[in-house]
Amino acid sequence: MPALSDHVAIVTGASSGIGEATAKHLATEGATVVLAARREGRLNDLKNAIEADGGTALVVPTDVTDRDAVKALAQRTVDEYGRIDVLVNNAGVMPLTYLHNMQTDDWYSTVDINLYGVLHAIEAVLPTMIEQERGHVVNVSSTAGRKVYPGGAVYSATKYGVRALSEGMRQELGPRFGIRVTCIEPGAVATELTDTISDEELKKDSAKMFSKLTPLEAERIAESIVYAVTAPASATVAEILVMPTDQMR
Ligand SMILES: NC(=O)c1ccc[n+]([C@@H]2O[C@H](COP(=O)([O-])OP(=O)(O)OC[C@H]3O[C@@H](n4cnc5c(N)ncnc54)[C@H](OP(=O)(O)O)[C@@H]3O)[C@@H](O)[C@H]2O)c1
């Protein structure tokens, strides 16, 4: 019997990168996966791939900055399957930019997606998980949630926030409601994440930095998430930091 055969998991940011890999891995472990992101075509392709491998997936196109849409995502999941066992709070952007370049739209969109988006999903699933007296929230932070670099001030602010939020959630929701909370902190991973960087000065500098390391494949992060989710219910894997071996900081 696959480890997650009776589980229903919502994955935000499932249309690419870490979210896509995680949805596939959870489905391979038997979970029914609910795929959320904005690009519906990519989500449908993923659903087809999962179903071709014998899994079950539901596509619910969702913009995580839209609080009502995220509530509707959770409601649709409960309507279809009657439960929510796992939320992988993964949707995020990283439009790194030097503060002096005043690309302030990037600052605010980063906070809207990486922090408010995460809160929206927690708000949407928590009543169901509390009622079930079980559930697992996996929040995706970053090494940038532990260290700050020039160009990453706002991104780091959101990822430090996600890490703090995760620890607070673990303390409040584990002992009282049996809800587990895991914070995943990847180092560099080869995904589409850097596509949102439009600060030309920063792009040049970061190209130099990234040329010195070998980014991980998204599958390595998906495997970590599966490890946390498949641990016995009595064990909370509170934090996982996964970095490329040749990444210094
Ligand atoms: N790659 C890395 O090196 C790295 C390192 C540490 C942490 N992380 C974190 O890992 C998470 C996933 O990133 P990734 O590396 O897999 O990058 P990615 O390939 O760019 O994936 C980002 C995902 O977030 C979704 N997304 C963005 N804005 C959204 C919105 N408003 N509403 C719903 N979905 C939205 C995107 O889907 P749509 O565009 O279709 O909406 C996409 O599926 C992020 O939280 C990121 O900060 C990544």
From TrEMBL:
Entry protein name: Oxidoreductase
Keyword terms of this UniProt record: Oxidoreductase
PROSITE patterns cross-referenced by the UniProt entry: ADH_SHORT
Protein's UniProt keywords contain Transport: no
SMART domains hit by this protein: PKS_KR (SM00822)
Similarity annotation: Belongs to the short-chain dehydrogenases/reductases (SDR) family.
Example GO molecular function: oxidoreductase activity, acting on the CH-OH group of donors, NAD or NADP as acceptor
Domain Ketoreductase residues, every copy: 7-187
UniProt cross-references to InterPro entries, sorted A to Z: KR_dom, NAD(P)-bd_dom_sf, Sc_DH/Rdtase_CS, SDR_fam
Species this protein is from: Rubrivirga marina
